[in-house]
Design a protein that fits this description.
Layout (H helix, E strand, L loop, with lengths): L6 E7 L5 H12 L4 E7 L8 H9 L25 E4 L2 H4 L11 E4 L12 H23 L8 H13 L6
Parallel strand pairs: 1-2, 1-3, 3-4
Length: about 170
């Protein structure tokens, strides 16, 4: 892996409306200028889920630039060079992804889809909050890895371990 001044991280989900969008926002805050987050979907919904936007705004994430977009944007000429690609939903993990220029490292960090949560509005919003918390925990672990001192194989093992962490209880 090259040693860029900023690592570009792409989060993938099928619809790019909840989990990957939240991960993008979290990465851009937690990355402290060393990581830049992006998100995309294999079959984007075309709109960010309003509960995801509400949650992000309530914890002071900028939301004005967040949009649901296709992963093809990141495989096209002129797209940012990607260092890491993480799938956050099981469907996207099982799909054939585009070929990413530069052979970024990848891992599966699957999480339940809050958009499919059922119940009262409060219960559904709790599902979004749980997803946000789990993403924050994983991204915090990731951005604190000693990137420069890990060889590629060790780093891949650590990325996979982060994805295997069981969802933490509320």
């Amino acid at each position: 892996m090259s040693d860029p001044s900023i690592y570009n991280v792409l989060f993938l989900c099928t619809g790019n409306s909840c989990r990957s969008i939240m991960a993008e926002a979290i990465m851009n805050r937690e990355g402290l200028g060393r990581f830049r987050g992006f998100s995309a979907g294999s079959d984007p919904k075309g709109a960010v889920h309003p509960y995801a936007l509400d949650l992000l705004a309530s914890v002071n994430h900028p939301t004005g630039d967040l949009r649901s977009k296709s992963w093809n944007e990141f495989a096209a000429a002129g797209a940012p060079r990607l260092d890491f690609v993480f799938t956050v939903c099981d469907n996207a993990a099982n799909e054939v992804c585009p070929v990413w220029p530069g052979q970024p490292m990848s891992a599966h960090w699957g999480l339940p889809d809050p958009a499919t949560a059922e119940g009262t509005e409060a219960e559904i919003r709790l599902a979004f909050a749980d997803t946000y918390r789990m993403l924050t925990n994983r991204i915090s672990i990731f951005v604190n890895l000693p990137m420069k001192s890990l060889d590629r194989l060790t780093l891949q093992k650590r990325l996979d371990e982060i994805g295997r962490k069981l969802p933490e209880a509320s």
